[in-house]
Structure prediction request, 288 residues.
Amino acid sequence: MAPATTSGSAATEAWTLLQRLMVGQKGRVHTIAAEFGLAPAQMLALQVLEPEHPCPMSALAQALRCDNSNVTGIVDRLEARGLVERRPGETDRRVKILAVTPAGEALRERLQERLREPPEALARLGEEDAQALRDILARALGDA
Amino acid sequence: MAPATTSGSAATEAWTLLQRLMVGQKGRVHTIAAEFGLAPAQMLALQVLEPEHPCPMSALAQALRCDNSNVTGIVDRLEARGLVERRPGETDRRVKILAVTPAGEALRERLQERLREPPEALARLGEEDAQALRDILARALGDA
DNA sequence: TATTGTTATACTCTATAACTATA
DNA sequence: TATAGTTATAGAGTATAACAATA
Prediction:
């Protein structure tokens, strides 16, 4: 009823609160990455790379929203640990296809499991709020 | 009604959707920082530092969830641009108090204005959903 | 000519450890 | 001894530009 933040539209206020929530989670997510010996960008890459769908380097760059040249280094480190591998493109020999190795898939699953755990702020919501939140976010992301 | 994601509690599903939303926003937020010539950590620091409440270096480190030694460099760059300044602590001469300069405050306000703009995904929510989202997040963060 | 991925370069962020000046 | 901030060091992410191989 009363404004939750200073002022502005409800969407603006929600966005402000969302940013605050995520900044507060930075440390926790970073700690999870460290548990697996992964740097943040490496963790994100491993989340994005679906074992069932190998994809070109450029697709990973797009998903990570960074330059192609960065992906080279990130993949180098993941490949050095045997978590992913580069395969030659089949039709276009310029592209390299990234595939998650079995070891990478195993680590990825344990990682996802840890990352799925909701932060305290969400865990303590009542079931009604949690469901409403999930449904609204699903609509926002176009999943509904 | 139907599960929005694969499985799990509503809070877990909401958290998964939230992470997806934020990853999708990474590029936009980074672009805003670049508009002001700020690196991401510098932008975050400028958001955290309230002009009305100067605070010690260590408080900024805590807010940024990084080591004290990092803050030295981040503040060095902000200070070099005249956006913040270090003042000697009044009671304890070991501490340095960070104060946002008038120039920093002006830039900070323009920055906040840009960052307050909600992403497309939230902006297109109906008013009812937007308000519900805001209120739930406010409860989650303990603001209500 | 255009594109994919790499390399070279330069800057920022990050943690750890050693240091200083205070306390 | 302990603490606040700095410095030194090393590793990682980031963008830009130049490059090789391929299209």
User: Anything to note?
Assistant: Chain B touches chain A through 50 residues (CB under 8 Å).
